[in-house]
């Protein structure tokens, strides 16, 4: 699974985990298993307000673009996030989106 991020100043959070073709976003499961290779699923059809684009399967790999909510004081890594490739199941690590105890 290939995940890209679109950072945006928001007060909500993002928690991700993966189990095969199921991506869990903030506790809600989204099963992309039925999406065939070369197909695209419009983000409106998914019903997740943290999607930043359509979901695609290219060469057997799911491509998902997500909004990365940023707190008032995000890390440099969160403001300019690199895409990630997720190969295993379980929780997905994200950059620090709000650094506590630093000047604003």
Describe the model.
The chain has 104 residues and is mainly β. 8% of the residues lie in helices and 39% in strands. It has helices at residues 43-46, 76-79, and strands at residues 2-9, 16-19, 22-25, 28-31, 40-41, 55-58, 61-70, 84-85, 90-92. It is globular and about 40 Å long.
Blueprint (SSEs and pairs):
Elements: E1 2-9, E2 16-19, E3 22-25, E4 28-31, E5 40-41, H1 43-46, E6 55-58, E7 61-70, H2 76-79, E8 84-85, E9 90-92
Features:
single chain; 104 residues; mainly beta; five-stranded mixed beta sheet; four-stranded antiparallel beta sheet; globular
Q: Tally of extended strands?
A: 9
Number of helices: 2
What is the percentage of strand-forming residues? 35-45%
Helical residues, percent: under 10%
Name the helix and strand elements from N-terminus to C-terminus, one letter apiece: EEEEEHEEHEE
Q: Specify Rg, calculated over alpha carbons.
A: 14 Å
Give the oligomeric state of the chains in this entry, treating copies of one chain as homo and distinct chains as hetero.
single chain
N-to-C CA distance: 35 Å
Helix and strand composition category: mainly beta
**Shape by Cα distribution:** globular
Largest pleated sheet: 5 strands, mixed
Mean pLDDT figure = 91
């Amino acid at each position: 699974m290939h995940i890209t991020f679109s950072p945006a100043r928001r007060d909500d959070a993002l928690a991700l985990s993966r189990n095969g073709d199921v991506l869990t976003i903030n506790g809600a499961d989204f099963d992309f298993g039925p999406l065939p290779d070369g197909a695209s699923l419009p983000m409106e059809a998914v019903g997740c307000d943290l999607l930043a684009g359509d979901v695609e399967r290219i060469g057997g790999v799911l491509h998902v673009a997500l909004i990365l909510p940023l707190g008032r004081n995000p890390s440099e890594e969160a403001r300019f996030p690199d895409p990630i490739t997720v190969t295993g199941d379980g929780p997905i690590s994200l950059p620090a989106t709000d650094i506590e105890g630093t000047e604003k």
